[in-house]
Amino acid sequence: MARKTGSHSEITGPRVRAEAQRLFARHGFAAVSMRQIAAAVGVQAGALYLYTPDKETLLFQLLETHMKELLAAWQAEPRGQGPLEALEAFVRFHIRYNGERPEVVFLSYMELRNLGPENFAAIEALRRAYETELETILKAGQAAGMILVPDTKLATMAIIAMLTGVNTWFREGGRLGRAAVEDIYWDMVRKAVGA
Amino acid sequence: MARKTGSHSEITGPRVRAEAQRLFARHGFAAVSMRQIAAAVGVQAGALYLYTPDKETLLFQLLETHMKELLAAWQAEPRGQGPLEALEAFVRFHIRYNGERPEVVFLSYMELRNLGPENFAAIEALRRAYETELETILKAGQAAGMILVPDTKLATMAIIAMLTGVNTWFREGGRLGRAAVEDIYWDMVRKAVGA
DNA sequence: GTCTATACACCGATAGAC
DNA sequence: GTCTATCGGTGTATAGAC
After folding, report:
1. Of the N and C termini of chain A, which has fewer Cβ atoms inside 10 Å?
2. Do residue A93 and residue A148 come from a single domain?
3. pLDDT score of A1
C-alpha cells in the first residue's frame, strides 16, 4: 500500500546517500542544492536533516565510506606471492574496482576541497594509506631486484594517476573491454617499472 | 594620485580574469560568487559585467585562453628530429608548462562541467587536439620501430594522466626539484613505451 | 519520520545616476 | 567605467504540526 507519509528510515537513509552521490558527481557538490537531493529522493528538503547534520557531512560520509571500502576490498583481494604478482594484482584491482563505481571515485578526486580541515585530513589519511599499499609493493620489488624505478614515491604517484585516468575516457561498449584495458595498462606499468 | 573611481578598463579587465582564476581554482566555480570576485578586484559586483556577459563566459574565456596558449607553446617548443626526441620533448614540456600554471590547469580538469554544451565542446576539441599531438608522436615512433606500445590511444591517455598528475603532489621546495621530476618521469615514460 | 512554513542570507544580473 | 540600489530567485537550515 503506497502512502505519502510514514516511517521509511531504513529505506530513505540509503536513498539520500545514493541520490546525493549521483547528483554531486553529475553537477558538482556546490552546484547541487539540498532541495534537489530531496526532490530526487521524493521527500521535502527538511526531511534530509534526519539523515545528515548538514550538507558537508553528507559528502564526507560518501567519501569516507568509499575510501574504507576501497582499502578493505584491496586487503581482501587475492594476490600472488612475489612483488611482481602483487603489482599486477594492484593494477588490475585498481582499474576494476574504480571502474565499477565511477561516481564516487570522481567525487573523491574532485570534491575534497569542499570539506573542512578535519574532514579533509581524514580522507587524505585514507588516501595516503592506499598509496602506501602500492609503494610498499614497489619497494619490495626494488629490494628483490625485480623492479627498477628511479624513485618509488614518484612511481607510486605516476602509476596511480595513470590508472585512475582510465575512468576519464573508458566507456562501456567502446572499442576495448575492461579486460583488454587491464591487460594493456599492466603491460605499460610492468615496462615502466623495469620488470 | 589614488582615486576611488575613474577609467581603468585596461587594468581592470585582466585583474578580473586573474582574480576569477585564483578564486575558481581555490574554491571551485560554483562556490565563488561574482561579489567575491568583485571584492578581490576592488570594484562593485555590477562593474564585472563590463568585462564579461555572465559568469560562465568568464570561466570559458579562462579555459579557452589557456588551451590555446598551451597548444601554441607546444608548437613553439624546440624538439629533436626523431620520434624519441619528440616524445622526450613532450614529456618535459607538459610537466614544465603545467607546473608553471597550476591554477588554470586545475580548472581545465575540474570545471568543464560548469560549461554549457557549446562551450564544453569547444574546450574538448582543443584538448583532443593536444592529445593528438602526443598520439601522433607515438604512432610515428611505432611505425619507425623505435617504440612498442599495445595501443597508441591508450598509451596517449596513460601518459597524459601520469604527467598531469604531477601537479597534484609537486610542491616547490620539496624533496625533488622540477628538473629531477622531469628526468624521473621521462625515464618511466621511455620504459613504458618500450623505447 | 515527514510535512509545511519560514527565517535570513546570498545569488546572478540589470537599471540608472554620476 | 564605476557606483548604488534593486529585482526575482535560491541557498541552508530550523520550528512546529501531525
Report:
1. N
2. yes
3. 36
- Closest residue (Cα, C1') to C1: A7
In total, how many domains does chain A have?
2
Q: Domain check: are B14 and B87 in the same one?
A: no
**Whether B149 contacts chain A with CB within 8 A:** yes
Distance from CA of A89 to the nearest CA of B (A): 18
Reported as a pLDDT band with limits 50, 70 and 90, residue A25 is very high
Residues A66 and A141 in one domain: yes
B86 shares a domain with B125 = yes
**pLDDT, tens digit (0-9, with 9 covering 90-100), for B110-165:** 999 999 999 999 999 999 999 999 999 999 999 999 999 999 999 999 999 999 99
CB atoms within 10 A of CB B109: 14
Residue with cell 562593474: B47
Q: Are residue A91 and residue A59 in the same domain, yes or no?
A: yes
Q: How far is CA B37 from CA A111, A119, A181, in A?
A: 21, 27, 43
Cβ within 8 Å of residue A63, ≥6 positions away: A104, A107, A108, A111, A112, A115, A123
For residues A35 and A155, give the distance between their C-alpha atoms in angstroms, rounded to a whole number. Answer: 44
Rg (CA), chain B: 20
Distance from C-alpha of B104 to C-alpha of B22, rounded to nearest angstrom: 8
Report how far residue A135's alpha carbon sits from residue A131's, in angstroms, rounded to the nearest whole number.
Answer: 6
Q: Which residue has the cell 581592470?
A: B12
Q: Evaluate if the CB of A33 falls below 7 Å from strand D.
A: yes
Are B71 and B165 in the same domain?
Answer: yes
pLDDT band at A8 (very low <50, low <70, confident <90, very high): confident
Q: Say if residue A78 is in the same domain as residue A137.
A: yes
Residue entry with cell 628530429: B81
Range of the domain at A165: 54-192
What angle (nearest 5°) sits at the alpha carbon of residue A67, between those of residues A61 and A72? 125
Contact B161 A157 (CB under 8 A): no
Query: What is the C-alpha to C-alpha distance for residues A153 and A135, in angstroms, rounded to an integer?
Result: 6
Identify all chain A residues contacting B184, using CB atoms and an 8 Å cutoff. Answer: 150-151, 154
